[in-house]
Design goal:
alpha/beta; TIM Barrel; binds zinc ion
């Protein structure tokens, strides 16, 4: 038996936000001048993750924090060498809805340059830190398109304070009729009556029982909709450093992380995971470049 999804239009796409333990949003370590003094763990966590992906012949798209990409170019090169792809996760990991258009453009282009300098490969995709694009004061998609980006992966189509967007599709789509080459690649959500719940990444992926994640993914693929998973390198190292936070924040940042590796191995064993660039829907435009 082949892995699920091989005969279905809907595929499983894996995305990884390449950031370190101190990039968790909403706590006290947001000042980049502090980052310089902190131990970097993303390198070892990413190499561990790359070995796991190799074992399952899986591919992923890594959304890289530019500041970190500048400091760990060898890991970025290794990501590329193993057949994966890189895209932008901003330079300073700031959500677009916390910036002006001028600041966003500057941060975006700085991250693009940092990643391209490290890898020699054009950056074509973007994911907003914290999926923070709701109530953005400017049209960030216009800025992306103007600077040659071919996809965005910042839409969070489920319930969540500050980031949830309820009425958008929860599978890849073209957001701009006038530019059919540009894709939106949202995180996956499943409907429970009138409520939509994201199941494929972050705290949801860590905390939801594995059977709910797997059955939700199967339902989406059967409808012909690709499933977009997301996680962080730190998620596969549950004994790594954590930030000081209140208990409910810790639950959100770290809850379920001791079970995540096994859950990921289950997914990798039963689904064929690919990158955004190599997915069947999006590859004809993005992957062809
Ligand atoms: Zn992030």
């Amino acid at each position: 038996m082949g892995k699920a999804g091989s005969k279905q239009k809907g595929q499983s796409i894996l995305t990884i936000d390449y950031e370190d333990w101190f990039h968790v949003l909403g706590h006290g370590l947001l000042d980049p001048s502090v980052w310089e003094k902190l131990p970097v763990h993303v390198e070892t966590d990413t190499l561990r993750l790359l070995d796991l992906l190799d074992q399952h012949s899986a591919r992923a798209t890594f959304f890289v924090v530019g500041w970190l990409g500048e400091r760990t170019p060898d890991v970025l090169k290794e990501i590329i060498r193993r057949g994966h792809h890189v895209a932008s996760h901003g330079y300073y990991h700031i959500p677009p809805n916390k910036m002006s258009e001028f600041e966003f453009r500057k941060d975006l282009l700085r991250s693009k340059e940092a990643i391209e300098n490290a890898t020699g490969i054009s950056v074509l995709g973007y994911r907003a830190p914290g999926f923070g694009v709701r109530d953005c004061s400017f049209c960030y998609l216009d800025v992306l398109q103007k600077h040659g980006f071919l996809y965005d992966s910042s839409v969070f189509p489920g319930l969540f304070p500050g980031r949830g967007q309820g009425k958008v599709p929860s599978h890849p789509y073209r957001p701009d009729q006038s530019n059919p080459e540009f894709w939106e690649v949202p995180i996956s959500a499943i409907g429970f009556g009138p409520v939509r719940l994201v199941f494929s990444g972050g705290g949801f992926l860590r905390l939801l029982p594995g059977w709910i994640v797997r059955s939700s993914a199967t339902r989406s693929r059967r409808r012909g909709e690709s499933v977009v998973y997301y996680l962080h390198p730190r998620d596969v190292n549950p004994d790594g450093p954590t930030v000081d936070a209140r208990w409910w924040q810790r639950l959100r940042y770290y809850g379920g992380r001791y079970g995540l590796l096994r859950k990921l191995e289950d997914i990798l064993s039963s689904e064929k995971l690919t990158s955004i660039e190599e997915s069947r829907e999006i590859m004809p435009t993005v992957g062809a470049l």
